[in-house]
Amino acid sequence: MSYIVENNVLDNVICRALELRPTELAKYICGLTNNTGGYIFLGVEKQNGCMKTVGCQKTFIVDGVIEMVKAQLDNEISMNYGFVSVGGVDIFAIEVAESDKKIWLEGKYFVYENNDVEEMVVNQNDEPITLFISYTECDAPIVDIIENKIKERLKDRIRISRYIGLQYKDSFMAFMNTIQDHDFVLTVVSDTYLRRQACMYEVGEIIKDHHYKDRLLFVVLSEKERKYYGEDAPEKIGPAIYKGPEERLEYVDYWKRRYDNLEKRMREINDLEAVSKASVDLKIIGQIFRKDMSEFLDFLSDENGKSFEKLYVNNFDEVIAWLK
Q1: Among the four 64, 196, 200, 275, which has the fewest Cβ within 10 Å?
Q2: Residue 255: pLDDT band by 50, 70, 90 thresholds?
Q3: Which residues contact 170 (CB under 8 A, 6 or more apart)?
Q4: Which residues, at least 6 apart from 56, have a Cβ–Cβ distance to it below 8 Å?
Q5: Is residue 223 within 8 Å of residue 272, measured between CB atoms?
Q6: In terms of pTM, does the model score above 0.70?
Q7: Are 83 and 58 contacting, i.e. CB atoms less than 8 angstroms apart?
Q8: Can you say how many angstroms the Cα of residue 116 is from the centroid of all Cα atoms in its chain?
Q9: Integer Cα distance of 257 and 264 in angstroms
Q10: Nearest 5°: phi and psi at 185?
Q11: Interval 144-165: pLDDT, tens
């Protein structure tokens, strides 16, 4: 543990100068064990991205606080704790292992995310987690990798839905409307994804839920993934959403032109019965360019989205931790 402090290994590490409140410690422990595990250091502060030891008195009443912490968690967890000397300064360290079950703190579910512990809105039951993967068909090679890795890690604790589950004559629209019945949605975002009406319809269904940010995960693709596509790779893979507002508005403009062209053709035909199906599409496309696309792009640009490459290298730990 002293190596972690001395070398500023910040991943999955919570530092506090002093924390004697059992509920706060329980929250930190809950968040780490629901992620991939980690460490809590008392007597250590983070300053400008570096750890600074300030020390923790050995009069700290360890066993009593730890027992109160454990009493607040709904399942047993694996952890080690004790005093550690770092450069001649005593600190109190708690090592928390990853749990294969969801750990709840007084009915709340916490996960360590973005260097902090955050409360997540998830279902507290023993049923398998349900995940809907939203993607466009040309990105299926990437989705296969993601799905296989999630199933490998979570086994029978996850149930995944995607297009290949549709049977002949199933209603595509009805299937899309079941998205909100899933615990989580994972969007695999590519340039093609942002230009497909079915995909953007899915996005619209997702963001109807006011709490969608608690259940929406996303993987952003780039040209680095081209090697997984073989001969069927699209001309452009990575979406231009992090370069600036002008690039993001290109997608809004794309859907605005789709709307204008369809509306023009409908006026030229000028027959309500003949264009009845097109009227439905026009309404969907209008919703995409007026609201859904901008809101989705704002969400993608505001959040610290993970690239497929980084997730792959880290064995999809961030996705697994969120799903658990």
Answers
A1: 64
A2: very high
A3: none
A4: 18, 42, 43, 83, 90, 91, 92
A5: no
A6: no
A7: yes
A8: 15
A9: 10
A10: -125, 130
A11: 999 999 998 888 788 888 865 4
Amino acid at 148: N
Q: DSSP string of 70-126? A: HHHBSS---EEEEEEEETTEEEEEEEEPPPSS--EETTEEEEEETTEEEEE----SS
Distance separating alpha carbons of residues 263 and 30, to the nearest angstrom: 53
Amino acid (1-letter code) at residue 61? I
Place of tokens 């001649």: 88
Cα–Cα distances (Å) from 108 to 78, 97, 113, 185, in that order, read 19, 19, 15, 21
pLDDT at 169: 46
> Across the strands, what pairs with 96?
38, 79
In single-letter form, the type of residue at position 279 comes to S
Each residue of 64-116: pLDDT tens digit?
888 888 888 888 889 999 999 988 899 999 999 988 778 888 888 888 876 77
- Strands 104-105, 108-113: parallel, antiparallel or unpaired by DSSP? antiparallel
* Per-residue buried b or exposed e for 13-47, using 16+ beta carbons within 10 Å of the residue's own CB: bbbbeebeebeebbbbbbbbbbbbbbbbbbbbebe
Angle (CA) 97 154 31, round 5°:
35
